[in-house]
Amino acid sequence: MAPLVWLITGTSSGFGLFFVHSVLAHGDKVIATARTLSKIQHLKEAGADIMQLDVTAPQAELDAKVKEAMGFYGKVDVLVNNAGYVQTGNWEDLSHEDLLAIFNTNVFGPINLTRLILPYFRKQHAGTIVFMGSSAAWQGNPGASAYNGSKAALQGMVEGLQQEMAPPGIKTLLIEAGSFRTELLDPKNVKLAPTNFKEYEKYNNWLKGLAKSLNGAQVGDTRKGVETVVDAVKGKGWAEGKEVPFRLVLGSDGIKTVVDKAKEVIALCEKWSDLF
């Protein structure tokens, strides 16, 4: 089988960085991207092609970037929408601009990039789109509404896309990851909206401490999580001979979050079903 060509966003750290090394180890080609090209220069030395890409760029700029990516090998087989970040803060402190920024990166970025690559995939009658979602889409957390909401919005959009793309033969994979040991919660990567209200000062300090205490102590093994996804795309390892589900929940804590929420909603519906 000819090597697959992967286009991966957000490869300067975390899942994206692990994806690059895993895909290269499988003998495939990688076009690694990041907002700041200097941060991924070392990946070129590892065997990847690199390209500057900001998923929040205007549509015309993204169009040019997709064409640039196609120029490396004449095709792309797998798009991994990985770029994203965490915004924390209370509802009263989150500005409209805060919300626009996280939705632009976590939701509209993947949507816009995917929309531009779909014509190429349809022409090939093949292609796989991977969305790095989160089990956070299944629950609300105080101080994390912006992040929860962005991942929930992505979940809803991608579920519709999967059904639209099945007839043309394009595969869609939504990864809903629990907590993995990446740099996602590193203080330099978590944006906390400063509070303007004394009632929230103690809580905001708690949020700062929580992110710091969880950073690096997450239960999930990032390397194992990435290998699970790569096997799902390539139909190897655990996925060989199996029909890979559209929704893949990663990590023991991620599975618990989804199962607990599903049970909670089922119980709620059963309790109040007589109203209708």
From TrEMBL:
GO terms for molecular function: oxidoreductase activity. InterPro entries: NAD(P)-bd_dom_sf, Sc_DH/Rdtase_CS, SDR_fam, SDR_oxidoreductase. The keyword NADP applies. Gene3D superfamilies: NAD(P)-binding Rossmann-like Domain. The keyword Iron-sulfur does not apply. PROSITE patterns: ADH_SHORT. Keywords: NADP, Oxidoreductase. Pfam families: adh_short. Belongs to the short-chain dehydrogenases/reductases (SDR) family. This is Secondary metabolism biosynthetic enzyme. It comes from Lepraria neglecta.
